[in-house]
Amino acid sequence: MLRSDRGQTAAEYMGMLLIVSLVVAALATSSVATNLSAAVSDLVCAIGGGACDTGPGSGSDADAVALAGRLAALTPLVEESGGALEELSAAAQAAIARGDLDEAEALIERLELYRDLIGAGPRGELVDGLVSPTDAGFADLLDQGTIQEDGGAHNLRYFQVAAEPGQGVLAMDLFIPGETAGPLKGDGRGFADPLRDGELGIEDSRVMVIIDRETGRGVIVQTESCTASAFGHSFCNEPRPISINGDLGLIENDSENDATGEGINLDVVNNYNVHADGDGIRLDYESRNSVSPFPAISGDVTLQPDGDGRLDITEDDRDGFPAYATHQYLPGQSDNVIEHRDAGSPIELITPPDLPDLPDLPDLPGPLPDLPDLPDLPQLPHPPNPPNLPDLPNLPDLPDLPGPLPDLPDLPNLPDLPG
């Protein structure tokens, strides 16, 4: 840009410099200032018409300024959550500084997605707990096994699968639409966005599975089970421990907040297996309420991405109960509503218990001896021929009846009945 270009005025130059100065002022109060100082200096130099070394950039100077502004707007999130989000912000700053604007934009879109989900409502704390810890902090969460929270009202278990950057955050929400389901209390609600609905609390579902596909971090959240109210009374019990891929892990048994005060039956845990399936994800599970050992919900479901990273269900063998809401939240794209599946009848979950296997019968000792051949039986004598019976005599003919039968007299007329 040359000072002699027609149509350019001092006021326009000052306006552009003002925009840059505002960005610099915002960055100066945050942790991004150091890594961006060289990039901003180059931009000011370019506006002034000097020869600047901007590096192997993949976009224009205006794009870099816009990205720097978007990153500055994320400062409150980064400073409050810190940890991995601070590392992600630093990576975006470095990408802008070296001119790799495509990489910077991808990182900023991730941060913007996290900001929106964390700030959406009560369930945002689940997203924050999943994406903000550093790698070391998340490793500590993995080691804790099943974690009881809110006085036993819900528990959670963290896990790790292979990352698939670009697929965003996946949330599968299992809930009971009715107020009751047999003897159990339901959630009493319809379909809602699992993570963006600001009215949904953590305990408004039976089970949630949330996986950050960007990092491969995941969490399973279970809610306590309560009986339906009978004569104004009901009771609740803390959710069962969570086993991940066969690993029970450590268990914190909150005996003070369960129905009996004796702790739950640790022999009956809820099993979840989560595996990467190529570029997709596979989840199979068997989960029971914590009031009685039956019924259990179980299923096996696989989700695979299309060319844009949008997941869809490709294999499905899940119980028809409860209801399922599965959403995918993608950086820089619209949300992907994978399913809103209505609940069937809970009666289908009730199956007869497996009968124990009968013990094996002991083998008979040794080979059986050969039995001797039976002797041939004598032939029976032929019975004698029956004697010939005599012919019966001929019966005599019956005599003919005498003459014709006489005519019967006419009957008298009956008198007419009176009037």
Keyword list:
single chain, 419 residues, alpha+beta, 2 domains, 7-stranded antiparallel sheet, 5-stranded mixed sheet, 16 strands, 21% strand, elongated, disordered N terminus
Describe this structure in words.
This protein is α+β, with helices and mostly antiparallel strands. Helix content is 25%, strand content 21%. The chain has two domains: 10-112, no CATH class; 134-347, no CATH class. The strands form four sheets. The chain has a seven-stranded antiparallel β-sheet with strand order 1-2-7-6-3-15-16. It is elongated, with a radius of gyration of 43 Å. It starts with 9 loop residues before the first helix and ends in a 78-residue tail after the last strand.
Task: Compile the SSE list and pairings.
Elements: H1 10-28, H2 33-47, H3 61-73, H4 75-81, H5 83-97, H6 101-118, H7 124-131, H8 135-143, E1 147-149, E2 154-160, E3 169-175, E4 180-181, E5 184-185, E6 207-212, E7 217-223, E8 225-226, E9 236-237, E10 242-244, E11 270-277, E12 280-288, E13 296-305, E14 311-318, E15 323-329, E16 336-341
Parallel strand pairs: 10-11
Antiparallel strand pairs: 1-2, 2-7, 3-6, 3-15, 4-5, 6-7, 8-9, 11-12, 12-13, 13-14, 15-16
